[in-house]
Structure formats: structure tokens, C-alpha cells
Amino acid sequence: MNNVYLHNLYASKTEAGYSLHKFPTSLIKHLSAKGQPNAYTLFGSEIRFTIVSKVTVEVYTPNTAQILIYYGDYQGEFHRFSGSYTFQIEPKFDEEGLKRLSQYHRFEPNLVRIILKENMTVRSIEGEYVFPDISKFPKQKYLAYGTSITQGRNGFTPDLNYPGIVSEALGYECYNYGMSGSAYIEQALVDFMCENTYDLITLELSVNLLGDGYDVSIFKDRLSYLLQKIAQTQPHATVIGITILDNWRKLGFDQNRGTQKDVILYRNAFKSIMKDYPQFILLEGESMLEFHHLSTDLIHPSQYGMIELANQILKHTKM
User: Fold this and answer.
1) CA quadruple 270, 288, 182, 256: dihedral positive or negative?
2) Do residue 236 and residue 307 come from a single domain?
3) Cα-based distances in Å from 160 to 132, 166, 310
4) Do 238 and 309 fall within a single domain?
């Protein structure tokens, strides 16, 4: 893992290679029992390097994972694999091509961005590449925190989630801290996220606490800490809170995991706490997404839904 830049990503050396995770190991132990394994489930995290000549990458996943290669902003190859997998990356543009493309990109076209989805270990990266010039990366930063909806659980490729679409439209670096099934707003995670400063923050919270039977008072306490911490550490950020989106509870399905009354209770709690932060923007979940833009599980946005969510957020950002 020498000469690579890890974006929204950490790596720990093991006998099998470098285990990838989206939070430092010192933080993972402070997450919930449900959240700890999700720290190793990667959505939108990236391995970056500047390519010189052909590079060979060997990875491993115990399940099924995906990799999408971008050359700067230019979409390249897609890989879906299980177990051990080896693939090659080659430069797409020569020096003359790079010069001609110089005004048409956010990232340099010789910057390889390996965008990841699901759990994986990197066994080796071999070939001709160098550490990238990070001074050329976008300066503005976007933090997206929320559930698997934010993570991009039902997107068919690693880049197809609303945080990725928003960051692409704005030209920002995206830090996607969506937690599938476990957006519990733990204090240690809040403190970690607020160590850096951001230009845009979105908070999609939290159908996970509702679905796992947490009393709304716990949601209110944890959300209050989160908003207070953001107010203290992010004085220049545009902060957008998003209440629970419409889902199957609206139609009366699976009442053992919360009802529409619970959804409304959580939404109202979010609204009441946001009143203390008039500088923040509140977007109401019931108006964020057409119901037919859900997947068949009736909770995760479809591909059209991800685009719709992104466009709703972009209406409220400083373009």
C-alpha cells in the first residue's frame, strides 16, 4: 500500500493483506455491536494513485464486492467479484492527451481512483505508479452521515448514491459515512466526524434507531449532541438535516419494526431540535422522494431515487 492515497478509508496490515475500513480502529471499538462490522463495509471509499504504466491489483472479499475505476473524472472499468480477484489498470491518456484535457476535469485524468463497495482486503498493488499530488484535489469537502440510504446500499455501482451525485455536481470531495442499519449517532463517531471541517454536511437520520426499537428520547439526546457539536466545530458549513423518508411503514407493512406513527414521532423530534439552530436547513423526508422512486424493499431509493434526493439537496446548496 505504498504510494497510494486513501480517501475516506483506512487500512490495517494483516497476514492476508491490508484490511480496509472507513474508520480508524481506535474508533470502531466504540461503535455499537451492529455498527462495528459495518465499518468494514465500504461504499464510495477510494484508493488513489497517479499511474505511470500498467498496474496489477489483487484483492479479496469473503462475499461479493464491487470496484469501479475512474481516471480522474472519466469513468473506466467496472469489476464485480467474489473471493480472490486480480485486475489490471493501464493509463488511458498520453502526455498530449492530458494537456488537451487539462481544462475539463475536477481530478487529473492520470489519477486512478479505485472506488470501492462492500468488504475487501487488498493483497497487493504492483506496477508503475506514484503518490498523487493532493494539492490538486478539490478543496471543498462534503460530509454525508446517515443510514444505508446515505451509504448507497441499493445502488448498482459504488458511485451511484446521492452523496456521490451531490459532490460531483458541486465539485466537492465526498466523505460518505453512511452506516447500513446502524446510524446510531454514537458520541465517539460524532467527535471523529467533527475533527475535520466541511463546506456541506447532510444528516439523514435515523430510521435505524426507530427500526431497532430505540425510544425517541434516545434519538433526541443523540441528535442534540450531534447538532451542538456541528454548531461548535463547523461555523462555515451549510448543514442540512433530512428527516426519515417515506417507506413501507406508510403503507402499514411490518408493524413489528415501527409504525407510521413512530416515523412521524421521529420526524417531529428532529424538527423540534432543529428549531434551536436556525442557521441549519431542515428538509422533510415526506417531500424528498416520490414513493415510486424506491426499490422493491420500499425503503432504499432506486437509481432514479438517488438522483432525486441529490437534486433536492442541491436546491439548498450554494452553487
Assistant:
1) positive
2) yes
3) 24, 11, 11
4) yes
Residue 319 inside a domain? The answer is no
pTM of the model: 0.95
Pick from 136, 171, 202: which residue ends a domain?
Answer: 136
* 247 and 100 part of one domain: no
- The three-state secondary structure class of 94 is coil
Q: Same domain for 78 and 196?
A: no
The Cβ-side half-sphere exposure at 214, using a 13 Å CA radius, reads 22
CB atoms within 10 A of CB 300: 21
The string of pLDDT tens digits covering residues 108-120 is 999 999 999 999 9
Give the model's pLDDT for residue 44.
82
Residues 118 and 152 in one domain: no
pLDDT at 319: 47
Tell me what pLDDT residue 298 has: 94
Q: How far apart are CA 191 and CA 107, in angstroms?
A: 30
Q: Are 151 and 180 in contact (CB under 8 A)?
A: yes
Residues of the chain with pLDDT under 50: 319
Q: Are strands 173-178 and 111-118 parallel, antiparallel or unpaired?
A: unpaired
- Domain assignment of residue 132, given as a range: 5-136
Print the SS3 string covering 48-91: EEEEEEEEEEEEEEEEEEEEEEEECCEEEEEEEEEEEEEEEECC
Instruction: Write down the pLDDT at residue 204.
Output: 98
